[in-house]
């Protein structure tokens, strides 16, 4: 057993991978995440060795290989539901040798963790898109902007519903929590910027506080909805949207 495998076995005692591999799994697209270096520094060293990709792609060809690996894992986990694909199966679906996969990832757990990171990294882009449009001039225009944001973010949850146990497991593990914290901080800052886009006079502290509530309430409620049926998820989405509007509208000075 190599050093990476030894370090990985230590993680199993934390219980996180029992959650990851007995819960349904799914994956995301292959856009590169941000802030990896900051996350990398804050992780426990042994955890980082066991789970970080072995080789960061520096050339376009290498990046394409990594994308093929992650795309293959995406397809397999969606097809297999609760059954975790093996590294061999991922390699075969990607049209690669197992050795080629191991050049970039020490184990299948590292592949899943990278996919979770990439899912988290997809949210900042969605929120930034709403900041780039013209600011709303009245409450109805702001309501429409909220609806557009909900459509985009709901799609991210629905298309990757079975990845949520992975995210929850990351949140509950001290060694891995910095991975989610990195993106949570970005999302909160972007929600605050979005509100200040609608009301430039909104104080930073207030905008940040509202951003925390928007992120936390939205995420928890969606997790609840995903554990139910699609109709329940849609109803919860509508309720969260109503809560958001009631929460932030008094701070935006919109007619």
From TrEMBL:
Q: Which UniProt keywords apply?
A: DNA-binding
Query: Which residues carry the record's DNA-binding region feature?
Result: 86-105
- The question of whether DNA-binding is a record keyword is answered with yes
**Matches recorded under InterPro entries:** Homeodomain-like_sf, HTH-type_TetR-like_transc_reg, HTH_TetR
All copies of domain HTH tetR-type, residue ranges:
63-123
Q: Does the keyword Magnesium apply?
A: no
Family matches, as Gene3D superfamilies:
Tetracycline Repressor, domain 2
Q: What is this protein called?
A: TetR/AcrR family transcriptional regulator
Organism, scientific name: Mesorhizobium cantuariense
| Lineage, top ranks | Bacteria, Pseudomonadati, Pseudomonadota, Alphaproteobacteria, Hyphomicrobiales
């Amino acid at each position: 057993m190599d050093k990476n495998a030894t370090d990985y076995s230590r993680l199993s005692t934390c219980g996180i991978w029992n959650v990851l591999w007995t819960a349904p799994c799914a994956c995301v697209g292959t856009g590169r995440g941000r802030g990896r270096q900051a996350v990398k520094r804050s992780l426990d060293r042994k955890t980082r060795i066991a789970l970080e990709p072995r080789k960061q792609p520096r050339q376009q060809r290498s990046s394409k290989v990594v994308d093929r690996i992650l795309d293959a894992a995406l397809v397999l986990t969606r097809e297999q539901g609760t059954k975790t694909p093996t590294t061999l199966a991922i390699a075969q679906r990607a049209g690669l040798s197992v050795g080629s996969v191991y050049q970039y990832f020490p184990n299948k757990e590292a592949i899943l963790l990278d996919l979770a990171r990439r899912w988290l990294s997809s949210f900042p882009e969605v929120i930034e898109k709403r900041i780039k449009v013209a600011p709303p001039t009245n409450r109805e225009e702001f309501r429409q902007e909220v609806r557009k944001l909900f459509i985009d973010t709901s799609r991210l949850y629905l298309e990757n519903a079975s990845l949520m146990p992975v995210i929850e497991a990351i949140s509950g593990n001290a060694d891995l929590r910095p991975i989610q914290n990195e993106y949570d901080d970005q999302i909160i800052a972007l929600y605050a910027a979005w509100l200040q886009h609608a009301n430039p006079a909104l104080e930073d502290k207030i905008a940040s506080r509202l951003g925390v509530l928007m992120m936390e309430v939205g995420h928890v409620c969606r997790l609840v909805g995903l554990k139910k049926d699609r109709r329940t998820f849609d109803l919860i989405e509508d309720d969260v949207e109503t809560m958001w509007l009631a929460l932030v509208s008094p701070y935006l000075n919109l007619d």
